[in-house]
Amino acid sequence: MKILITICARGGSKGIPGKNVRMLNGKPLIAYSIKVANEFCQKHNAVLTLSTDSIDIKNIAAQFGLFTEYVRPAEMATDNAGKIGTINDVLLFEEKKRGVRFDFILDLDVTSPLRTIDDLICAFEIIKNDENALNLFSVNNCHRNPYFNMVEKSSDGYYKLVKQPETPILSRQTAPKVYDLNASFYFYRRKFFDLNFKNAYTPYSLVYEMPHSCFDLDEPIDFTLMELMLRENLIDFEL
Q1: CA nearest neighbour of 38 among 24, 52, 51, 50
Q2: Which is higher by pLDDT, 239 or 89?
């Protein structure tokens, strides 16, 4: 079974400039993804690759043992470029270079590093054991529920629940289970890319619910919070 692990890290970021290599508790952010990727490689003999348009990111990744000949095309390094197309491009590059066809692709998002090797191993077993599944993404239990306490503006200018059940739901505990995507990792079967999906949502998607805190670094305050969590040992697992 052939597995490709992709780490995609473009140089530009308006929300947090240079965030992919910004220092987090003494290490560049990308180093956390490289570490857990190497652990997974050792267990499953996987191949690890990097997709970036930045020389600085490439050089810092190399300091942590991740080297690549691939250079992300400029059109895939913009704010509007989709992640799926970016992964597919480096996937095709690695398959051509190595003369193989990968069975699974694991994408690790640099900006959501609160994941463990156990998370990846358990999630891989879930998708591997469901032959119909095209992909799997990591999630957390959410604090807001569209069936109970999330509203949206309707065409008449008034506000209503995002999801309108036939029978009114009177408590959060009785609402259907929903999840927050934490953007930490995604597993794909190779067939997913053959079918030309534009995003990660398919009729045959699975989730892995993380048993611990995990969130994406979108704003500067997120870095501050995560740094505090790591520095003060406020997470119950080793990163």
Answers
A1: 50
A2: 89
Residue linked to tokens 């509203």: 151
Cα separation, 81 vs 125, whole angstroms: 30
Residue 195 CA to residue 197 CA, distance in Å, equals 6
- Crossing angle (nearest 10°) for helices 29-44 and 55-63: 60
Q: What is residue 82's predicted lDDT score, i.e. its pLDDT?
A: 84
Burial status of residue 29 (CB atoms within 10 A of its CB: 0-12, 13-18, 19 or more):
buried
* 197 exposure class (CB count in 10 Å sphere: 0-12, 13-18, 19+): middle
Given a cut of 90, is residue 113 above it in pLDDT?
Answer: yes
For residue 79, the one-letter residue type is D
* Amino acid found at 176: P
- Are 158 and 164 in contact, with CB atoms under 8 Å apart? no
CA dihedral 40→41→43→46, nearest 10 degrees, is 120
Pairing assessment for the beta strands 135-141 and 179-189 based on DSSP bridges:
antiparallel
Helix (H) or strand (E) holding 24: strand 23-24
pTM above 0.85, yes or no: yes
Domains belonging to the chain, first-starting first, are 3-142+178-231 (3.90.550.10)
Answer yes or no: are the C-beta atoms of 91 and 105 closer than 8 Å.
Answer: yes
